[in-house]
Amino acid sequence: MEEMELDLTGRLMADMDPKLLEFLQTKVNSFVKWDLVRFFHDNPHTTDTANNIARYAGRSVETIQTELAELARDGVLEENQLGEMTVYSLAPDRHTRELLARFVRASDDRQFRVKAIYHIIRGTRR
Amino acid sequence: MERVKTGIPGLDEMLWGGLLPQTANLIEGAPGTGKTTLGMQFIYHGIVACDEPGLVLTFEEFPHQYYNDASSFGWDFRQMEREDKLRVVMTSPEVSKADLEQVGGRIESLVREIGAKRILVDSLSHFERLSKDPAHLRSIVYGFINALKREGLTAMLTRESVALLGEAGGTDDTLAFLVDSYVLLRYVEIESTIHKALLVLKMRGSNHDKGIREYEITSRGIEVRAPFEGREGIMSGSPRQMVDSFVQAFVRR
Question: Which residues of B touch A52 (CB under 8 A)?
């Protein structure tokens, strides 16, 4: 019975644009990443170190370092060496930028946010 | 000689027609004196009146802050970005310096992408955290300024002054030697009212107005007005009427 309820909730929560659902489950799968992609969406020309991005985002560098690296690995951000510094910027790929813009626009909707939070929490429990 | 007009009424006259092209120009003032507004007005005027796209390099404020501030003067920076005439770039001094040092860096690409001719760097004060050694800091800023000139940009660089009224004590002025022009913005108290004063302290390669003028931040941006007359000690923050100084100096009590 409990399993059936969970399945029903899961199906209700999965009722969103499949591309955004995939983006959420495979790329923006933590609240810190959500904050970071929003930051880069709002500041698309920013290139900076993890230390400075942490400062802009009001987080500690330890909190965001791994998340930045994972976003770069997943193609949402770009990771480059600038002298001795590792810097991050938004990936120039148009498809990714469009998907990110759709995700940020969708996030303004409360229903979408509730579903997105559900998926992130479920993802972190796995 | 060709001039880069700031578009600020009164200031271009003080600069004998405007800034010189591909120069670095320092705007120094206390919080609220309008350094960033002056810089944004310079960028805005370049885009709308001179067909000269611009970059804003910010080391502290978020781009949306510039969009909001600009829109309060009726300048639609968001639309200008959409039209590829403007880029507001949030970064840090160390990254922008390293980026400009390499060939084909991000800033260089942005300059080429939109054909930028003007840049606002807000603010140069943030470079001060890169080195405690004044000679090293001077070398860092020198390289940065030269890179901007290499890109063909006329730069306006803001710098924060800690003193609200009068002379800022303790600031290291070696950076002032690196720039081509130096504009000071100051608060001045006259008869219990705060006014704003502007002075062009230096302009390399050109003559300029040596007067101290009053300016205001209006709904259209900065407007430089008439010189302060009949007063002295304006930049001290507490000017005296010249007649008072005369009495103090020559009349025995």
Answer: 91-92, 95
- Secondary structure of chain B as H, E, C letters: CCCECCCCCCHHHHCCCCECCCCEEEEEECCCCCHHHHHHHHHHHHHHHHCCCEEEEECCCCHHHHHHHHHCCCCCHHHHHHCCCEEEEECCHHHHHHHHHCCCCHHHHHHHHHCCCEEEEECHHHHHHCCCCHHHHHHHHHHHHHHHHHCCCEEEEEEECCCCECCCCCCCCHHHHHCCEEEEEEEEEECCEEEEEEEEEEECCCCCCCCEEEEEEECCEEEEEEECCCEECHHHCCCEEHHHHHHHHHCCC
Kindly determine whether residue A47 and residue B106, on different chains, have CB atoms separated by under 8 Å: yes
Does the predicted TM-score (pTM) go above 0.95?
A: no
Q: What is the pLDDT of residues B204-228, one digit of tens each?
A: 999 999 999 999 999 999 999 988 8
| Residue B252 pLDDT grade (very low, low, confident, very high; cuts 50, 70, 90) | very low
Q: Which residues pair with A87 in a beta bridge?
A: A49, A80
Which domains does chain A show, CATH number per domain?
2-125 (1.10.10.10)
What is the structure's pLDDT at B59? 95
Name B144's Cβ contacts closer than 8 Å, sequence gap at least 6.
Answer: B93, B96, B97, B100, B127
Residue B181 φ then ψ, to 5°? -140, 155
Residues of chain B with C-beta less than 8 angstroms from the C-beta of A40 = none
* ipTM value for the complex: 0.78
Query: Which of B89, B95, B101 comes nearest A87 by C-beta?
Result: B95
Q: Which is more confident, B1 or A20? A: A20
Question: Quick check: B65 contacting A, CB < 8 Å?
Answer: no
Q: Mean pLDDT over all residues of chain B? A: 90
Q: Does domain B11-250 have CATH number 3.40.50.300?
A: yes
